[in-house]
Amino acid sequence: MSAYTSLMAYQRETEALSEIAGRLGWDQETMMPRGASEQRSEEMAAIESVLHARRTDPRIGDWLASAKPSNAVKKAQLRHIRRSFERSQKVPAKLAVEIARATSVAQGIWAKAREANSFKDFAPTLEQIVSLKCEEGAALADGGNVYDALLDDYEPGATTADLEDMFDALRPRLVALRDQIKDADQPPVLQGNFDEAGQLKLSAKLAEVFGYDLTRGRIDKAVHPFSSGSGQDVRITTRTVADDPFNCFYSTIHEVGHATYEQQIDPAYLLTPVGAGASMGIHESQSRIYENQLGRSRAFTGWLHGQMIDTFGDFGIEDPNIFYRAVNAVQDGFIRTEADEVQYNLHILMRFDLERAMMSGGLAVGDLEVAWNDRFLADFGFAVDMPANGCLQDVHWSVGLFGYFPTYTLGNVYAGCLFEALQAAVPDLDAQLSQGNLTAATIWLRDNLQRHGGLYEPRDLIKQATGADPTEKPLLNYLEAKFLDIYNI
């Protein structure tokens, strides 16, 4: 066997074990009994120990040195394996196992603290997670920027400096747009109660309309919706709120964007490093373009309005255009996942600054709640009412995902670029969306981005799909055109 063949056979087993670890995580969020959290933490630690040993096996270095890639796919496979090998070697096995154990337990502690609205119940656990992630970041950075080292796990090639430039360009126009909207007439708010069975039934229909293959997936409920898995087993979760069916519908569409990306990757890449999304920013571009540019468009909400009537009867909004305005209402709110398109990225920019401060030691975990509340008041103009609506609302920090938050805004930026190209490629897009037909849109995304998996670096993938380097301008232009029209400004 050649070095490349031996390496890929070994890697296939590693990828399979990683998928098993992911399934344990899915189970923990959906089916696992609450009393099993301690045992699950030991299970997660055990499998991480095995994975870390495999990722740092000295034979990988030998195979990499001897492998002779003969095409672009093989070169990409080696690029991913080399990157994982070099990064894994920098992190001591004991530290990797301890992070897996601590973050598994932390999820349950965070959930209880959130339910009790008590940050002090979670603060000691978060201090431990921050300490462990700082140690990991320092090991990975090897004298460089700790936050950049953590960010690279989710968006290879991105740097704090690049993100600061992009975010600094986004903020003024987003704030200016929000300020214009605040003085305009506001659309009606959806009112009433919508039964859970009806929400889940329409949610499942939306998943299929957007191309989710339920023969290779499933939809469950979770406190914090997410997507998990790749290839032939890609699962999503959603949630229901009695007086807010949009929460369920758009959580589902969002997670379907993630899931269909994984389902549409070339089957030849199954259980290989290239057989997954190129980055979390690219992943988020799929969930956001599905949810927002497509799912919240005037054309598609016209179709959704009819589905709402079929499912719930007269629900108080008879005019599809008024329904469109209600779906896209810009409203004050605490929760990032429920934020409108105009304000969503402001939530991310705040988290980006706060987590960098924690990673640098400039913000003690004990001071996070006050820092969050002060920053939120400054950015949004009203005060946080309780921790569950403030620094306890997101699961990310409890599971150690420092460096993950900025990829949400990167995803929005990438989605803006992709939508501009999609509109040019499919001139009758709105006519199709008005019929609930997503076929042309999802095929374009499959052919130009999704099927490639991790074959290309993130920015190169966007450039290949759109013909231009990614920039924040298409997103800002889209938001301004859409919302100035909605609010008749």
From TrEMBL:
Family to which the UniProt record says this protein belongs: Belongs to the peptidase M32 family.
Record CDD domains: M32_Taq
Record lineage: Bacteria, Pseudomonadati, Pseudomonadota, Alphaproteobacteria, Rhodobacterales
Catalytic activity: Release of a C-terminal amino acid with broad specificity, except for -Pro
Biological function: Broad specificity carboxypetidase that releases amino acids sequentially from the C-terminus, including neutral, aromatic, polar and basic residues.
Transmembrane segments: none
KW Cell wall biogenesis/degradation (keyword) present: no
Pfam families: Peptidase_M32
Protein name: Metal-dependent carboxypeptidase
Entry keywords, A to Z: Carboxypeptidase, Hydrolase, Metal-binding, Metalloprotease, Protease
EC id: 3.4.17.19
PANTHER family in the record: CARBOXYPEPTIDASE 1, METAL-DEPENDENT CARBOXYPEPTIDASE
Organism: Parasulfitobacter algicola
GO molecular function, one term: carboxypeptidase activity
InterPro entries found in the cross-reference section: Peptidase_M32_Taq
Organism domain of life: Bacteria
